[in-house]
Amino acid sequence: MSTTTDEMAAARTDAAALELRDVVKRFGEVTAVDHVSFEVGRSEFFSLLGPSGCGKTTTLRMLAGFERPTEGQIFVDGEDASDLPPYRRDTNLVFQSYALFPHMTVEQNVAFGPERKKLGKAETRERIGEALETVQLGDLAKRYPRELSGGQQQRVALARALANRPAVLLLDEPLGALDLKLREEMQFELKRIQREVGISFVYVTHDQGEALTMSDRIAVMNEGTVEHLASPEEIYLRPASLFVAGFIGQASLVPVKLEERDGEGWIVSIPGGGRARAAGGGADCVSGGSGVLLLRPEHLRISAEGGPNGNAGISVRVLEETFQGAVVRYLVEGPESSRLAVVTPLDARLSEGSVGRQAWVSWDARWTYVLPGELDRTIVIDPAAG
Known about the structure:
This protein is an alpha+beta fold. Helix content is about 25%, strand content about 35%. Strands 11, 12, 13, 14, 15, 21 and 22 form a seven-stranded mixed sheet that branches. Strand 4 (about 70-75) and strand 5 form a beta hairpin. Helix 3 crosses helix 4, helix 3 (about 105-115) packs parallel to helix 5 and helix 4 (about 120-135) crosses helix 5 (about 150-160).
């Protein structure tokens, strides 16, 4: 039975903007990407997040066509693009270095793609205008890259890619060369642009804050595989593994014993002999086994005295207090020399001279999560903890 043009168009519309099916990439004896599969929806902001060497950049290069998969398939806009060169794929890549042509003006840089496609002058001018308006650089069209700030150059690189109207825009750590304040501003700007143009973005970064801020979904990669693919909220609050729990944000990972199920959560024994409730737990948790309790520092409360008042808690000694503007960070030591990081609003800080004194740390069970695994001590994932 033949397929009509309308049916083909409908199938194309329903297809994911991008799909990897069991993709492997080997370089000699080294497996850089190991059986990775995922889909990127239309108009989705999708991030590949992980440490250096995890395979995220290799995955992006395969999506762009600069590397071919050793095994598996890559589909772009419903079509098999596994063996297509970059110029024949409906994708565009924005590099970290921007790769602008220094001898061309802003509008000439943006016009490069449409002109290579041999579009008419009227359509080329229309695309240039739309792209520059989207990135809010219309008044700088006649300037050269050397006359622009780093943030403006980044926007030009983005406009040049958008002018091609790709099905998927690939971004390889494009904010890495910017200073901290500008990088934070551009995170919101990139998300605004993505929502406005409605193109699927695939964003590679090792910066957890960037991924959490901008993404609809995140694929956390480790050693060539995807360890967790979910929304930013799920990855942060209910990580799939100890690696994800430690890699995303700051945390205290506390060794516990899993005593019994409590609805969807667990009752656990914590260092020092106390018991606590965790609202959720990983699928592989078993009664009587070892586990790791995930406590985010902003979910902990510290007070000079008192008891748990219905919440789990432990007696601690304050080791450090650090003023950080809107919040105060504490490093405390609990039973069995376990340490915890606590971040509290400025108006809830302890009284002056609290370092070296006893205090009480408590938490609400709904913000806790337990994972299967075994640790010989509490681990604090916090740059300030050394």
